[in-house]
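Here is the promised in-class demo. Please do not try to memorize the tokens; focus on the logic of going from shape to residues.
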């Protein structure tokens, strides 16, 4: 029989599993960053830079001492690597072998990526890198026109095909552009490269997801992972019968949880601390899940025409009091050292405006420092009547 959790308990379990809000850890700051990557399982990489890019933002929210250099150092030390999760991501090197089934399927033609494979060009590109060492796409000449806004020149498509099927890796980036090298030159000594069985892969996906997210359903665990949902569902039933996972119900939905995760409910959740989240934060990436568990209907509107945007180009969800209570569309004007909040929209259920404003001001001070901004401008709020309260709370942050 499924254990029943209240919606508040379910949200608490999810947030504690996601390590939100973060608690300060002893030891080296970079070790805390590695711990966050290993616990969450992946950190999504994104190119949008109206504020700090998503990978930096997500890690800063888990590690208050995080700095941008951490990812470069962890890559150089071969503690993390780039590959594909549900999107481009940094992954823990300890999990490397669990990327091999996807790579094998792409290499064998069982799974397609974005590009048609040009085997001759791929062979030529691979030979150059083997002979010359790490190269970037710009190191391969291309005299023709690039067809279409989202298309890549042939050598870039070949590089990405080789990357996706595992023959190349990215040891580092230069100005955010990927550098490619042979996989055997990037992997650390002694790394486990045994191909997991499909059953091992399913158990890995289940365990990693439930450790990081507290509660999960088969469809959530197999999110955007082709041909895995059926095996994940069957493995969950096997693990349930063995007592390796428990079944819980909340809000009319059934989930699975690890026994150790349920013990987190005995720990307190810091409700007074507010966090401004990236749209690509691990907590938020599955929108239907956020609707079911948090009642938060969220869409990144940067992909919509401006006239159709309700909240703004890149609105950031705001977590407070164990709930998602607002969203903030902002931009860090780095040359002017100014953070402009174009629109701060509060959820209708948020009624403790004065308390929220104080918590918002406290976190916004840290957010400004993270973006190396000294000035702040609040343009618009929803509802409009809360703007004076919020302006009064943040007026001391300038300068």
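The designed amino acids, position by position:
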């Amino acid at each position: 029989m499924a254990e029943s959790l209240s919606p508040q308990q379910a949200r608490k379990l999810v947030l504690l599993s996601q390590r939100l809000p973060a608690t300060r850890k002893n030891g080296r700051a970079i070790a805390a960053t590695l711990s966050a990557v290993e616990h969450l399982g992946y950190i999504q990489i994104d190119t949008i830079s109206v504020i700090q890019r998503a990978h930096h933002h997500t890690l800063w929210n888990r590690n208050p001492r995080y700095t941008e250099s951490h990812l470069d150092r962890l890559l150089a030390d071969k503690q993390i690597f780039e590959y594909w999760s549900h999107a481009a991501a940094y992954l823990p090197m300890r999990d490397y072998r669990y990327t091999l089934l996807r790579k094998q399927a792409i290499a064998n033609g069982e799974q397609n990526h974005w590009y048609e494979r040009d085997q001759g060009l791929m062979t030529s590109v691979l030979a150059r890198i083997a002979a010359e060492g790490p190269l970037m796409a710009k190191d391969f000449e291309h005299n023709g026109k690039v067809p279409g806004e989202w298309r890549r020149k042939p050598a870039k498509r070949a590089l990405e095909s080789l990357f996706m099927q595992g023959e190349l890796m990215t040891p580092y980036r230069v100005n955010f552009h990927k550098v490619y090298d042979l996989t055997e030159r990037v992997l650390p000594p002694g790394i486990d490269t045994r191909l997991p069985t499909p059953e091992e892969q399913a158990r890995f996906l289940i365990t990693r997801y439930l450790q990081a997210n507290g509660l999960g359903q088969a469809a959530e665990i197999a999110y955007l992972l082709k041909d895995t949902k059926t095996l994940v569902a069957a493995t969950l039933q096997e693990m349930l019968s063995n007592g390796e996972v428990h079944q819980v119900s909340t809000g009319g939905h059934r989930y699975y949880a690890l026994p150790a995760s349920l013990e987190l409910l005995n720990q307190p959740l810091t409700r007074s601390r507010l966090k401004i989240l990236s749209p690509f934060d691990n907590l938020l990436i599955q929108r239907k899940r956020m609707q079911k568990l948090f009642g938060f209907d969220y869409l990144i509107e940067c992909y919509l025409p401006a006239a159709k945007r309700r909240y703004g180009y890149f609105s950031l969800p705001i977590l407070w009091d164990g709930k998602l209570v607002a969203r903030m569309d902002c931009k860090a004007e780095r040359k002017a050292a100014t953070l402009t909040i174009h629109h701060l929209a509060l959820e209708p259920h948020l009624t403790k405006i004065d308390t929220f404003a104080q918590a918002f001001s406290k976190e916004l001070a840290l957010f400004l420092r993270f973006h190396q901004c000294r000035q702040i401008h609040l343009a618009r709020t929803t509802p409009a009547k809360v703007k004076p309260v919020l302006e009064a709370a943040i007026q001391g942050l300038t300068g």
